[in-house]
Amino acid sequence: MAGALVTPESSYILIGTVLVAHWTCAMSMVFINKALVSGRSPSADISLFIVWIQNLIGVALIQVMNLVTIIVGGTWERAKWDLSTLLHPDMIMSSVTFTGTLVFNNLMLKYISVAFYQVARSLTLIFVITLSMIILQEKITSRVVVASLFIVMGFYIGVDQEMLSTGVNPLGIMYAVIASLLAALCGIFFKRVQKKKMLSSVQLTFNNCLISSLGLTPLIFSTSQLNNFLYSSMSEDLTARMLLFLSGIMSLSMGWLSALQISLTSPLTHNISINAKSLFQTVLAVIWSGESRAWLWWLGNGLVMTGIATYTAHKLNPQTRASLNMDVEIQAPHPTNRNK
């Protein structure tokens, strides 16, 4: 029942299910987007177009689900067109950073391999720590400093080794840093607007997709990215179109699952989950590509994960546990009480 408290056991099962589903969608999105921006995309850039079409598909699918709920009934909570919520500053900033993360993620994937994704995006946690100190006024302990040093050293070694082994384009590194910053900001604004407006994860996802698609529309035309797609062989490639549609479904699912995971835990937990997923994705990508990597490359990955593990252990300490929202009652993901 909406708004009812769930038992600790069922809440852990729910969080675990959301975690696995998010990992599946997130890893699928990386490989699909890599195929779209690299293997099948035209020579001209269509990174904005991909994000735009993914968000349009997300809006359309949510509206279809709303219609199905009206016709046949069901427990799906319908997303509403609430102008006051859509224009809320935190909602707008959440959508802007959400869109920016996706755009710069796609730009990054044009220049780096999937195997390097983990290290390239490892600075997300550094930005989370920094922004939490600046925005949330959180204190920085010695353990947090040590964890940050591990991550920064891992990032430096990883970038150095990737340049030596594959000659990665510096643009890819720059886009990765920007995407990491925006991802950290997105998590903070997500949590803030969810607390202030008491929005369900479905409503948050709908708002993000709608604001993102509307905001990107003028850019799609002004940058000629729509024409780049329409006048390329990709527009007539059935496989490419299927990948675009599938990426829209995955993007919607990932956005909803991200919002749900953040609402059930915290932005920090969400970012830790992302980094843990990236480690598994790194190993999978190396095995899939059949590439071999130098031991220093793996050391860089190991240092990044050591830093994340150190930070996680610190936050799971009883004295800092409350910062993860893990000792509070967990609400069902479809609250009925909202600020008007």
Automatic annotation (TrEMBL):
Residues 15-311 form the Sugar phosphate transporter domain. The chain crosses the membrane at residues 12-32, 52-74, 115-136, 143-159, 171-190, 241-260, 295-313. Signal peptide: none annotated. InterPro entries: Sugar_P_trans_dom, TPT_transporter. Coiled coil: none annotated. It is found in: Membrane. Keywords: Membrane, Transmembrane, Transmembrane helix. GO terms for cellular component: membrane. It is a multi-pass membrane protein. The keyword Membrane applies. This is GDP-fucose transporter.
